[in-house]
Amino acid sequence: MEIPPPDPKKLLDAWMAWEKGESTPGRVMADMKTAGLRQVLEVLVSQAPATDDA
Predict the structure, then answer these.
(1) 2 lies in a domain?
(2) Neighbours of 17 (CB within 10 A)
(3) What is d(CA 49, CA 34) in angstroms, rounded to the nearest whole number?
């Protein structure tokens, strides 16, 4: 099964719904997962400068 590309608009919509109190944290996490949050975070981490966090 092919994973669709991340959808930043859907990610932001989910976040904003949580900030406005329109969604529960569990619903927001589910929506962010299906909108590609993991892929976005993986790209950001791969582009970030290396740190010595242990």
Answers:
(1) no
(2) 15
(3) 27
pTM: 0.78
Closest C-alpha to 3, from 36, 47, 46, 44: 36
The token duo for 12 is 């932001």
Tokens read off for 26 = 């569990």
pLDDT in tens, the chain (54 residues): 888 899 999 999 999 999 999 999 999 999 999 999 999 999 999 998 887 665
pLDDT number for residue 54 = 56
Which domain covers residue 25, as residue numbers? Answer: 8-41
Q: Domain for residue 48, yes or no? A: no
Structural domain total, the chain: 1
Report the distance separating Cα 43 and Cα 53, nearest Å.
Answer: 18
